[in-house]
Design a protein that fits this description.
With about 475 residues, the chain is of the alpha/beta class. The chain folds into four domains: about 120 residues, no CATH class; about 70 residues, no CATH class; about 55 residues, no CATH class; about 210 residues, Uracil-DNA Glycosylase, subunit E, CATH 3.40.470.10. Helix content is about 40%, strand content about 15%. The strands form four sheets. The chain has a five-stranded mixed beta sheet, covered by helices on one side. A four-stranded parallel beta sheet has the order 9-8-12-13. A two-stranded parallel sheet has the order 1-2. A hairpin with a 3-residue loop joins strand 5 and strand 6. The protein is elongated and about 95 Å long. The relative contact order is 0.06.
Length: about 475
Amino acid sequence: MQAITIKDFEDWRAVARVLIANATRPSEVQLFEDDGQQALFAEDPTLRQAPTAQSSFGVPSRFLSLAESVGCHRAAGRWDLLFRILWRIKNEKKNLLEIETDDDVLQLTKMEKQVRRDAHKMKAFVRFRKVVQDGQEFFVAWHQPDHRIVRRVAPFFSRRFSGMNWTILTPDECVSWNQESLEYGSGVSRSQTPQSDELEELWRTYYASIFNPARVKIKMMKSEMPVRYWKNLPETDLIADLLAEAPRRVEEMIEQHEGFDKTADDFIKRFPNQLMTLSALKQMAAGCTACHLHCNATQTVFGAGPANARIVLLGEQPGDQEDLTGDPFVGPAGEVLEEAIGSAGLDRRELYVTNIVKHFKHTQISSPESSRPPRGKKRLHQKPNAREVRACRPWFDAEWSCLKEAEKLVCLGATSAKAVLGPGIKLTDQRGRVCGSDYCQQTFVTWHPSVILRASNAAARESKMRELIEDLVLAKDSV
């Protein structure tokens, strides 16, 4: 077997041309990463000769693009993989890249995606620090990429920061820009980078000002900004404190009425308290325009049940079927809830069932077979945000005040639980327990029936359905 060292993609390309021209099979050659050390055996000097007209051949442009990207990957076997695929395209299947289930193609596309994502991370997480030397200023950044992407990403920085002198240091290779050209050098350790400058405090102040506690999603944040990059970013030492303060700041935003000129209170306060009934509230709510959700909904979906109900079930918002009929929990989620209520030994006719938001929030996708309004569109549920919940919440407050005998409140899902118990509540921590709220001392938190419908498998569905029933039994039997 012939062993060949490869320096970079262009070197691999030159060698691959000669190997293909010589009819060398992938099993007859092994391509190694050039680590700068002298090879054990002398290589054929003709391996990197210029191609002749007779030896040239064409390959799909998509392969060259993928190969150039995968050439930056850190995996030792990437050069063998690229040559194997090239040989198969030339000798077996010209359309090999279109066979997405092929093992080699799967590995190639996976590695290309990893390199592309790493390049994206470098563009997003490089932070320059100002250095002044001999009266001149330039900027230095440290980054530790997963793959050898410096030369692939450096042109982006030369375009983005063309008017300043900068250097990006990495363990593999460094690159500098002098406002005219890019220059590359050997890698360095992180200890050789400057640690701070006066620009960091400005950046930290800016980051704290744009941090939106109402929109924070920790899992997504860590996915887009992996923790291992945090040590290089000046703003990340603020994150723990900002997250800890997020629930309080959300409450402040809501209390300050940010984003809304009016709420349901503007409709309710027009009606005399002595004449307030569930029937009167339902009639008033039919004309509610406190938020924009009424614009696309068919109608207001108010609560349903007897005025002397002892147990109140509070969901998130009406769904597609509820929006069309005007009644709460009559669609697929309603069927699940009906089953759970029966299994818990409760009678729905004795319960008051409602939602914290009274209009159906949704988006639309094309669905030619659908006859639901608007015609030709399928309506998909969207979660209401904190501002929409705040605008609609007074309707539930008024409902509760009319339910004179209500003594137990069951929150179905995280949206209603956070509206009742505060934005910091975690459903998984709170369910299965009795807690107090501003509404009553016997408040419960459990799964929304739609979570059961969306469960990934039968076991998950059975588990959550069992827990929903257990929580309803707890509410029924608690004293």
